[in-house]
Amino acid sequence: EAGVAQSPRYKIIEKRQSVAFWCNPISGHATLYWYQQILGQGPKLLIQFQNNGVVDDSQLPKDRFSAERLKGVDSTLKIQPAKLEDSAVYLCASSLEVGTGEQFFGPGTRLTVL
Amino acid sequence: DAKTTQPNSMESNEEEPVHLPCNHSTISGTDYIHWYRQLPSQGPEYVIHGLTSNVNNRMASLAIAEDRKSSTLILHRATLRDAAVYYCILRSTGNQFYFGTGTSLTVIP
User: Fold this and answer.
1) pLDDT tens for residues A72-97?
2) Closest to B74 in 3D by CA, of B19, B33, B4, B30
3) pLDDT (tens digit per residue) in A17-48
4) What is the pLDDT of residues A50-68, one digit of tens each?
5) In this structure, are residues B107 and B80 in contact, taking their beta carbons and an 8 Å threshold?
C-alpha cells in the first residue's frame, strides 16, 4: 500500500515570497491533516479536512496560510507571504475517517525562509 | 496546548526493556491515549493506542493507570532502530492530535 506522498521535500525561499506544498493521501482515506513542526517541537495541527470540507482550522494563521482539498483527495497548503518564523517541516497525514484513530504521516516538506 | 507531559530524554541499553512515562492529568473520559514515534527526517509513525485497558501489539505494550491520568509505553527489548522521539498524545472525539515535545530515546549499544 502506497503511503502519504508529499512534494517538494525541500524548499528554500526568501521572506515575503509565496510557496505551496502538495499532499496525496493514502487511497480511500477521507480525512487529511496538515501539521507544522518547528525544530525541537512536536507537530502542531494547522487544518483538518473531512473529504473536501474543513473540520478544524482553528490554528491556521489565515492571514497568510490557506489550504484546499477540492476533490476530496489531494490537498495543497499555501503560504503567502512567507515570514522567517514559517521555517519548519510541514507534515501531511491522512486517516480513514474521523474517529478511527491511526493517522498515517508523509515524510514532510522542509521549508527554509531566508 | 499540549495536554501531556513527558521527560525530555531517556537512555536505554540495547536489548533491555524501556519504560517511557506520560502524564495526562486533564484527560477526559472520551480521550484515547496514542503513542507515536518519529525517527530523524521522517514523519511520525503509529506505535500503539488505548482507552482504558492495557494494550499489546508487535511493537510495544501500553500500560494505562486505573485513573487514566498517566500511562507508560513499554518497549520490551530496545534495539538501535528504536532510537527516536516518542510522543504521547491525547486524541479527542474529532480525531485532533495535540503533540507535546516528546521524549527523545537514546539506545546505547
Assistant:
1) 899 999 999 999 999 999 999 999 86
2) B19
3) 999 999 999 999 999 999 999 999 999 999 99
4) 988 998 999 999 999 999 9
5) yes
Interface subset of B 1-60, CB within 8 angstroms of A: 2, 32, 34, 41-46, 49
For residue A31, which residues of chain B lie inside 8 Å, CB to CB? 95
Cell numbers representing residue A37 in the block: 513542526
Closest CA–CA distance from residue A52 to any residue of chain B (Å): 16
Q: Which residues of B touch A104 (CB under 8 A)?
A: 46
Q: In chain B, which residues have their Cβ closer than 8 Å to the Cβ of A102?
A: 46, 49
B16 in Cβ contact with B79 (< 8 Å): no
User: Is the Cβ–Cβ distance between B72 and B22 less than 8 Å?
Assistant: yes
Cα A99 to Cα A62, B40, B64, distances in angstroms: 26, 28, 20
- B47 to chain A, closest Cα gap in Å: 9
Compare CB distances from B99 to A31, A42, A101 and report the shortest one's residue: A42
Q: For residue A35, count CB atoms less than 10 angstroms from its CB and return exposed for 0-12, middle for 13-18, buried for 19 or more.
A: buried
